[in-house]
Amino acid sequence: MPTSQFTPGDKANILSEALPYIQRFFDKTIVIKYGGNAMTDDKLKEGFARDVVLLKLVGMNPVIVHGGGPQIGELLKRVGKQSEFIQGMRVTDEETMDVVEMVLGGLVNKEIVNLINQQGGKAVGLTGKDGGMIRAKKLLIADQDDPNIKHDIGSVGEVLGIDPELVELLDTRDFIPVIAPVGVGMDGESYNINADLVAGKLAETLRAEKLILMTNIPGVLDKEGGLLTGLTAQRVDELIANGTIYGGMLPKIHCALDAVKNGVHTAHIIDGRVNHALLLEVLTKDGVGTLIKRS
Ligand SMILES: Nc1ncnc2c1ncn2[C@@H]1O[C@H](COP(=O)(O)OP(=O)(O)O)[C@@H](O)[C@H]1O
Ligand SMILES: CC(=O)N[C@@H](CCC(=O)OP(=O)(O)O)C(=O)O
């Protein structure tokens, strides 16, 4: 809606509504996962960057973890390689890992850093290899029919641990960390890690107030396609068991649940296609997606 349709009183009320949220979340860490599918439109990307800068300037500590699945897929296609996924994870051979590091650590990471800096923020791009921040090991995927069978899908990692020192150091000088989900193994090898998993573990490690997962769907939907605005662990179990939650939503919901069980206050799955979704979620009473709470 164009702002001219609001009276000055409406505008003042909207701005004033943010005060209790600014007070509540002042000096709190908010881990935001910016999914590759939410990074499509230039206007939305600019809106996202403005929101991040605004949250920082009103005293919160936004930490960005980004994805880039579609962008990796595009470059792989250009070099004549097909993308293959098993249970939502990209099969990652050596050549694919090179492309993953190039796209996540290079193109996508620097694009987001640049967008935030263009809006007046001080963003710094990192991968999990910087400062040995994200330690990882090979993820073996349990077979869906026989969990005793494990599939090796190459350089796909799971998080062993995250060293928060670098992020904390950046925070002392008001930099905004922008982190690519690439981890480092015992022997210095690179691992491709699902960005939701990195965001969840980072939120736990930083004892974040909020974990916000931005995707390209309104939130978690029920069987009829209606938005589920609030979910608890028990309800999630039911929705997985009856097949309502599947595919790419599974790692998202699992890491959101793990995060809230391990000290993160709330987790949110929100629609990155809504302009200023982040501001609406953090600074207004009208959330824009699904809130996941412990109980
Ligand atoms: N119950 C559900 N509600 C919403 N989306 C669901 C649900 N179950 C499965 N999905 C799927 O999960 C997708 C989101 O995961 P994904 O595509 O991996 O997102 P991203 O690329 O942002 O990480 C949705 O587009 C949808 O196809
Ligand atoms: C192991 C694995 O699948 N890694 C992901 C990492 C990027 C990601 O998670 O990006 P989105 O959040 O945009 O999907 C991949 O290769 O696509």
Notes on the structure:
The structure is a single chain. This protein is α/β, with parallel strands linked by helices and 295 residues long. The protein has one domain: Carbamate kinase, CATH 3.40.1160.10. Helices cover 39% and strands 24% of the residues. The chain contains 10 helices and 14 strands. It has helices spanning 8-17, 19-25, 42-57, 69-78, 94-118, 165-172, 195-205, 233-241, 249-261, 277-283; strands at 29-34, 61-66, 85-86, 89-90, 123-127, 134-142, 150-162, 176-180, 182-184, 190-192, 210-215, 230-231, 266-271, 289-292. The chain has an 8-stranded mixed sheet with strand order 5-8-2-1-11-13-14-12, with helices on both faces. The chain has a two-stranded antiparallel ribbon with strand order 3-4. A two-stranded antiparallel sheet has the order 6-7. A hairpin with a 7-residue loop joins strand 6 and strand 7 (150-162). Helix 3 (42-57) packs across helix 5 and helix 4 (69-78) crosses helix 5 (94-118). The longest helix is centred in the middle third of the chain and has 25 residues, at 94-118. The radius of gyration is 19 Å and the shape is globular. The two termini are 36 Å apart. The mean pLDDT is 94. This is Acetylglutamate kinase. It comes from Sulfuriferula nivalis. One of its GO terms (molecular function) is acetylglutamate kinase activity.
